[in-house]
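Forwarding the complex inputs:
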Amino acid sequence: MKPKLLHATVAVVLGTACALPASAQQKPDVLVKQRQAAMVLQGKYFGPVRAMGQGKLPYDASVVTRNVGYLDALSHMPWDGFTPATKDVKSAAMAAVYAEPAKFKEAQERFTSEVAKLVEVSRKGDEAAVKQQILAVDKACGGCHENFREKQ
Amino acid sequence: MKPKLLHATVAVVLGTACALPASAQQKPDVLVKQRQAAMVLQGKYFGPVRAMGQGKLPYDASVVTRNVGYLDALSHMPWDGFTPATKDVKSAAMAAVYAEPAKFKEAQERFTSEVAKLVEVSRKGDEAAVKQQILAVDKACGGCHENFREKQ
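Prediction (whole assembly, two chains):
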C-alpha cells in the first residue's frame, strides 16, 4: 500500500472530516502523554482566568484575552489522544471514557463550545459577561472531570 | 499589601509588558511540567508538518493549516516556565538557559518569529514556499535544542 493510499485509508477508518489526525500513528503511551500535556496547559491558562471569574484574583482584561486565546487552541488538543488503544495505559481516565464514547464526546464538545463562547464574549469587553462565561467554562471542565476523570 | 498592588508589583518586578505572567505564582516543579507540556505539544503538531516539509509524508494543506494554527499559540507557551527558580529542577534544560538568558531569549524569539512566518506563508497556499518555511522552523527548533537542551 502506497503512503498516500494508507493515509487516505486511515482518515476514512477514523471518520475524520478532513485529514490525518495528529494521533493516527502514535504509540498509546505517547498519546496519553500528549493529552495530559494539553490538560496541564489548559490548567496553566485557565487557572488564573477562573480565579478572576470567581473574584479571587483582580480582573485583568489583558491576561484574560491572552489566556482565552491560548485556551481556544488548547481546548481542541486532548481529544484525539483518547483512542481505544490507550485504554490500558495508566492515567486518570475512567473506564467511562472508553465505555461511553458518545457521552464523552458530548462533554468534550460542551467544553470546546463554552471556550469558544468565552473567546467571543471576551472580545466584547463586558467584564460581568466575561466572568459569567468563565464560570460556564469552569462548569464544563468540572462536568467532564466528574464523569470521566478519577478524583485527583 | 492589597492583591491589586501585589499583582502590579509582581508584573513590574518581572518586567512584563502587560500583566501577570501565567508563571508568577507557580512552584518550580509545576513550571517545569508546564513548559515540558508545551514542548510535547509542539512535537505533536510540528512532527507531521516537518515530515511533510521533508517529503517524508504526503503534503496535506488542511493538516498544515490546523497544526500551524496550534503551533502559533504553542510557540509562546514554554518560555515563562524557564525562571531562575527552576534551575535545580531535574529536566533537560542545560545550564546555558540560566547562564546566558539573552542568548536563550534570542533563540526563543527566532523560533516564535519563524512560526509566525509559517502561519503567514501557509495562508497563501504556495506548497513549495510552505515547505521551505517548515524547514526554517525546524532549523529554529534545532538551533535552540543544540545550545540549550541536553541530548535526548
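Residues 79 and 105 of chain B are 8 Å apart (CA to CA).
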